[in-house]
Amino acid sequence: MLLCIDVGNTQTALALYPSSGEVPDDGAAVASRWDARIRTERRATADELALSVRGMLGPLLAQVDGVAALSTVPALLRELRGMLDRHFPGVARVLVEPGVRTGVPLLVDNPKEVGADRVVQALAAHQRVGGPCVVVTFGTSTTVDGVSAAGEFLGGALAAGVAVSADALAVRAAGLRPVELVAPRTVLGRSTVESMQAGLVLGAAAMVDGLVRRIGEEIAAKDTAGRGPVAVVACGGLAPVVAPECTTITHHVPDLTLQGLRLVFGRVQEAARAREERRTRR
């Protein structure tokens, strides 16, 4: 079994996938056998990370024969690497970071600035839809990224996430308090709570729809071969809240990042086998 670990700013997602050494040859979703989420502790040590992972896996730990991981928290990247080295010795692993060949060309000014999560999401989304797409992530930040028909990462837009905006509003505005992040009955809020929900949830949906349309137009302009409409793939912890209010989203894939990690692992293993075969033929 392949263990995929996505250490995000707010939560850490875990999933076990079968057939760790295989690269899926189509865009179909891969059902995970097991998945879980835990809170990300930014000061966690390698041993504490391992304790959390082992505690969540329980008896399934014995079935792990490969690990693919990433961290969007720079302070935890070193600890994640240490966890893999000390607690998963002899297990094939891939830690997605600058320098790892994911197979996704990054057509941006500084490729090292692109978060590993955005790279693997672009890979998984393109694999799923088989053409140009926009990836929308509803997490700590709301990201809207463009992927070309050839699977190239074209860049994107970053904005504060819905929960971050809600927290900031409650802290900075006197008389306002935290509210449940759900869509209100109507955009014309009839109470302070509904007004905040309309601005936060429906406002985020309107922003995403506007960015998606603009990015989609730019992608279509670059796609001289005319390889079909631009699909829009949503993921992230707050996608179930905001995505239904968007008019542009065509796919919702909750474990898109984890599927991307699985794809990268398969590609890296396949490349390693190819190098070994070339070496033995010499």
UniProtKB/TrEMBL annotation:
Cofactor names: NH4(+); K(+)
Domain of life according to the entry: Bacteria
Documented EC number(s): 2.7.1.33
Cell compartment(s), UniProt: Cytoplasm
Family named by the database record: Belongs to the type III pantothenate kinase family.
Gene3D superfamilies: 3.30.420.40
Source organism of the structure: Actinomycetospora corticicola
Role of this protein: Catalyzes the phosphorylation of pantothenate (Pan), the first step in CoA biosynthesis.
UniProt name for this protein: Type III pantothenate kinase
Binding-site residues for substrate, renumbered to this chain: 115-118, 192
Biochemical pathway: Cofactor biosynthesis; coenzyme A biosynthesis; CoA from (R)-pantothenate: step 1/5
Subunit structure: Homodimer.
